[in-house]
């Protein structure tokens, strides 16, 4: 089950099974899992007022439903999920759309001990019409079958420090943002590089919720839902899927970012420490950059959201200690870019 | 976060954010949370046979999805949710409808200690066409910002003892009730003022279920889902949202009230004691009144449903002790009015 | 509540209440409960490519939603659910369909102690157009009201050892199976009588998940969701609904049976030991028979799936010990027949 280092070759294309039709049921479950309140994704009236024909799917939900497909082929038996880069959300996804994913191997690096290696893939998710809805690169460490023979293979791709921002952004021209509907008064112009938002909410995650979510995403990495197996590991219990923490942090960031309803990109992310059932997730966000776009209805914010477990975010000054090591309660360090309308769209 | 006593003024109108489109996903989740078996809400065939074009949404689910919107503005930091009155459900809501809510401040009363006060609001929920779907009054105690200055404000509205019953009731003329579909043989004529129904079922609620429900309703009162915060309070754990108990009691009341498929009004309610994960909810119902209406296909029953935790309802004679204090296991005392077809509609 | 032995008579027809409209919400919840990955049920693209107009509902989900209706009348107070036979799934069910069920009493056998008896029923589920979607026989032991009088009634029906296979199978002609979509390369021709598949996944079930599922199915057998009551029984806690284990075993069997996406029949089943919250379910499958059909696009496999709790399936050689008693960790012994396309359909 799962692939070994030798099963991959540069340029190899992997069609991931299980195209998935996204439904109203998935959307309701996502709100139940996260408490997410971004109005664009929970109200057809808000979506049409803005300029959409109907509600688009929350980008993070779409990410999980699409990404989940690649676990079987790429990371089922991974020793470690090392990183991801250049994640972008090129087109909106709607209820009834069917998403699927293909990956191409873009790098391979044998570890010097000969026992394992790193596989780099470029994964592209499309909808039923072939339009790109997700695009990202990730790298995982996997076992070698033959631990005796050194191959010396070392082809390491380079990644952009941040997902490039395109000339064209595929969301409708924003006709108007009703601040009484979105719940937030802040527009692009109101954010400043360097400012920090401490989000007030904390949400506790239990075993049933996180395993229901991971199973909904058809992500079959067994560490997340096999308690019997995990009891014999140092963790001693089921590990929460890292995507759950991304979702909780994004939902919690609503307070202060109510009108930033689109993920444009994830530039990089670190799952600094594991989370388990019973942990309460908090978050704060730093504005890394304020980015103008040629479109005059919207701008972009590059954000860094730090998720913390069982500790209020205002108690954390920096996620790392003086030696550059993540503090034990920091569980996510996410660098991402959101789209936010300009004040002129305010109704 | 949240409003203080001084933030409110008589006549002030508050448009609550987050209009919400109600979907099949919400309906399925509601059945999963409660086990509700009222046929009108889970079968298109039953609904059309009765005279509907399609299944209407369960009134209590609609209440939660609409009410949840007002928490942020009215009660996020409430010291106490003191009461509600004159709740009515003026029009049915269907899948695909988008509900939103507005509140008007109708009363303010500073407490004599100067530290807090009571805010009274009148809240109206509408669908995407502006038709009223929920109408109620509630009052909450909130902190004052300036605890030193006494304002002496005291404008207290009066409330009807029971929600008035209108000449027109906005449900279709009931063409027929198939007792083999609804599961119940009892019609309006079969109930007598003063009779009591002990409902046999008890349902245990766990942390995942109640927090999933509260998050689905986008009710962000933190006492319900932040275990880290609650551990440092006298409760020591997450408090279940009172609406969960209303839903469970309503679902449990199915046995004996199978054909009373419409909430017409909630006249008053007391959340007598808190409920926590692991509690098993039981309920019994007293028929307070049997009310004829000018329509000859339906009548109304005024009911009092008492929900009890971890104790069979037949063991409780009255919810209060001889001093008028609620017994420790009583968790809800709900006075409400339901619509029930007359025997002539029986198929 | 619930029926006693004397309430049943041979030939008696029972129309079970609560016709149920099946929605996208039910389907999403089912995926969340089980992690099921059969592509036909989660992708409209896959379904139409195969020859369907749209995704059919997973047969096991449909079974639960339809079967749940009979609990109130047949088995609410059953002393034991003794068995079932000749379960078949005659027609596909789609989102939006409304299923309902009727049972006929086909056998009655008083127990020799005079205190209880066995009731045999034949249950038929239909969709809103009257097409049969589920057909099965089951027998349950129920209490007698009058434990003093011996009636001597003994009419015991006989059952086929396996559900007969019909000339016509009501699934569309399979146009093509895209193995990159279904995730599996094995077709009818690849299976051999006697072979065994150890499925690698184990899934832990918690109280919230299994009670949410059982409530969604509107199965109101109280042993599954009343913890207060169960604490005073030898079990000491809520018992998981046996159907949950069938669903988990079926979902886990995906690995190795990816293209066997249709339940044709359940021939027999034994719930060998109870399962509780916290148990991790594993499974293995034996191929009992390889069955040709006159259709040349498909064949059938008769399978025996053994579900085991808290033990890897490869550690179990046979589910029973040398005395023919089930091993303590075996929780399901299911004999069923699936449809699987032939290799010629491969795309």
Features:
homotrimer; 347 residues; alpha+beta; 9 helices; globular; Thiol_ester_hydratase_Rv0216 (chains A, B, C); lyase activity (chains A, B, C); Beta-methylmalyl-CoA dehydratase (chains A, B, C); HotDog_dom_sf (chains A, B, C); MCH/BMMD (chains A, B, C)
Q: Can you give me a brief rundown of this structure?
A:
Chain A is of the alpha+beta class. Chain A has helices at residues 24-34, 39-42, 44-50, 59-67, 71-75, 179-182, 207-216, 227-230, 242-252, and strands at 13-15, 20-21, 80-88, 98-110, 116-126, 132-143, 154-155, 196-198, 203-204, 262-270, 280-291, 298-309, 330-341. In chain A, strands 1, 2, 3, 4, 5, 6, 7, 8, 9, 10, 11, 12 and 13 form a 13-stranded antiparallel sheet that branches.
Q: Strand count, sense and closure of the main sheet of chain A?
A: 13 strands, antiparallel
CATH topology of the largest domain in chain A: Thiol Ester Dehydrase, Chain A
Basic shape of chain A: globular
Task: Spell out the helices and strands of chain A N to C.
Answer: EEHHHHHEEEEEHEEHHHEEEE
Q: What is the fourth-level CATH superfamily of the largest domain in chain A?
A: Hotdog Thioesterase
Give the count of helical stretches of chain A: 9
Q: Residue ranges of chain A: pLDDT <50 for 5 or more in a row?
A: none
Subunit arrangement of the protein = homotrimer
CATH architecture call of the largest domain in chain A: Roll
Percent of residues in beta strands of chain A:
25-35%
Number of strands of chain A: 13
Amino- and carboxy-terminal Cα gap of chain A: 54 Å
Please give the share of residues in helix of chain A: 10-25%
């Amino acid at each position: 089950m799962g692939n070994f280092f030798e099963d991959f070759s540069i340029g190899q294309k992997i069609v991931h099974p299980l195209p998935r039709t996204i439904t109203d049921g998935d959307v309701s479950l996502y709100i139940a899992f996260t408490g997410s309140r971004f109005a664009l994704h929970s109200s057809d009236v808000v979506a049409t007022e803005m300029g959409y024909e109907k509600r688009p799917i929350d980008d993070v939900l779409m990410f999980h439903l699409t990404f989940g497909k690649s676990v079987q082929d790429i990371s089922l038996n991974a020793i470690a999920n090392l990183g991801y880069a250049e994640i972008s959300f090129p087109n909106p996804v709607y209820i009834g759309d069917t998403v699927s994913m293909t990956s191409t191997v873009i790098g391979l690096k044998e570890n010097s001990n000969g026992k394992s290696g790193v596989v780099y893939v470029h994964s592209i998710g499309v909808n039923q019409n072939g339009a790109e809805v997700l695009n990202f690169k990730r790298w995982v460490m996997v076992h070698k079958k033959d631990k005796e023979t050194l191959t010396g293979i070392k082809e390491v791709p380079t990644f952009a420090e941040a997902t490039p921002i395109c000339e064209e952004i595929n969301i409708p021209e924003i006709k108007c943002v009703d601040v009484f509907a979105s719940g937030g008064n802040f527009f692009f112009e109101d954010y400043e590089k360097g400012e920090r938002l401490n989000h007030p909410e904390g949400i506790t995650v239990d075993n049933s919720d996180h395993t229901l979510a991971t199973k909904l995403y058809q992500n079959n990495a067994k560490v997340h839902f096999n308690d019997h197996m995990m009891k014999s590991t140092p963790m001693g219990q089921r590990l929460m899927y890292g995507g759950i923490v991304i979702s909780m942090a994004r939902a919690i960031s609503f307070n202060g970012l109510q009108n930033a309803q689109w993920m444009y990109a994830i530039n990089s992310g670190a799952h600094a420490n594991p989370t388990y059932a019973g942990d309460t997730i908090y978050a704060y966000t730093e504005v890394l950059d304020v980015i103008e776009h040629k479109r005059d209805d919207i701008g972009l914010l590059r954000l860094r959201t730090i998720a913390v477990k069982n500790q209020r975010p205002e108690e954390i000054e920096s996620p790392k200690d003086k030696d550059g090591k993540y503090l034990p309660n920091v569980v996510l360090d996410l660098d991402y870019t959101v789209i936010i309308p300009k004040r002129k769209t305010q109704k």
